[in-house]
Amino acid sequence: MRTYTKDYLKQVQALKDEIENADAIVIGAGAGMSTSAGMIYDGERFHKYFQDFINQYGFEDMYSGGFYPFDTLEEYWAYWSRYIYINRYMDAPKPVYENLLRLVEDKDYFVLTTNVDHCFQKAGFDKHRLFYTQGDYGLWQCSVPCHQKTYDNKEIVLRMVEEQKDGRVPTELIPHCPVCGRPMTMNLRADSTFVEDEGWHIASERYTEFLCRHKNGKVLFLEFGTGINTPGIIKFSFWRMVYDWPDALYACINLKEAYAPEEIRKKSICIWADIGEVLERMGHE
Ligand SMILES: [Zn+2]
Predict the structure, then answer these.
(1) Are strands 219-224 and 248-253 parallel, antiparallel or unpaired?
(2) Ligand 1 center from residue 177 Cα (angstroms)
(3) Are the beta carbons of 219 and 245 closer than 8 angstroms?
(4) What is the DSSP string of 205-270?
(5) Whole-number Å distance between alpha carbons of 234 and 245
(6) What integer pLDDT is reported at residue 224 of this predicted model?
């Protein structure tokens, strides 16, 4: 059981005040946000849904299973369809995203996220205020890609989950590109084949426009659970803007590491704690 110090409670209250006082809030969310919401990719949750694959292939967690070179597309999609279903179409176990929405829904906010699990939209965030930079488990694209378009996968994924047997999906469910006929793949940024479709570009423009509109206002950059894998997208760009903009403030809530560089420390609130706990506390006080 963790005990909370006076400093911690003061910081949480200070952050709550800043949320209330801000003209605009830019939310940046990384993997730690979903981890706090119970989207865990190993341990109990992994065993609960993937015991048959663990027995057959010896996988240790969901991520590494996703990189396994399956012999056939029938096996590949048996694994991936279940992975997509659990992490994209089922609700997150804990209401962390919902609690964040309650705090900011009356504010002028925008969300930038490297998460691909759709949790913001599932929790009811306005989709016109979201920019998913790294893709979406709910979208497929041509594996080449021969054209810059993405396709909703829900209907086929549900059938794959339902109809898979002995670790294989029926051959007729394997998705192929409607243009060139080659296999489809996930719309996830892994290399230069990632498709940035029309929706991606519109969201990107909306984000840029939001920043332009607010750069001289009282802006709170609110960062949740951003790791060290892709710091350039959220963390470094937030630090830069807080440094450059006259009335901007940086807040970081992270269970692994909450930190701000010396140059902006006086404009920062860093809370080294579980995101879900902090949000719940702010909702009650
Ligand atoms: Zn194609």
Answers:
(1) parallel
(2) 5
(3) yes
(4) HHHHHHHHHHTTS-EEEEEES--SSSTTTTHHHHHHHHHHSTTEEEEEE-SS-----GGGGGGEEE
(5) 16
(6) 97
Q: How many Å lie between the centroid of ligand 1 and the Cα of residue 194?
A: 13
Residue 226 Cα to chain centre, angstroms = 10
What's the gap in Å between 141 CA and the centre of ligand 1? 8
C-alpha 229/C-alpha 212 separation (Å) is 27
Amino acid at 94: K
- What the chain holds in terms of domains, given with CATH numbers, is 1-39+93-134+196-285 (3.40.50.1220), 40-91+135-188 (3.30.1600)
Q: For residue 226, give the amino acid letter.
A: T
Give 150 Cα–ligand 1 centroid separation in angstroms: 11
Ligand 1 centroid to residue 202 C-alpha, Å: 23
Residue 28's beta-bridge partner residues?
112, 223
Span 150-172, pLDDT tens digits: 999 999 999 999 999 999 999 99
* Structure-token pair, residue 211: 């920043």
Give this prediction's pTM: 0.94
Containing 163, the helix (H) or strand (E) segment is helix 154-163
What mean pLDDT do residues 12-17 have?
96
- Cα 149 to middle of ligand 1, angstroms: 10
138 CB-near residues (< 8 Å, 6+ apart): 84, 88, 89, 118, 152, 153, 154
Q: How far is the CA of 140 from the centre of ligand 1 (A)?
A: 11
Span from the CA of 178 to the centroid of ligand 1 (angstroms) = 7
Å from CA of 164 to ligand 1 middle: 25
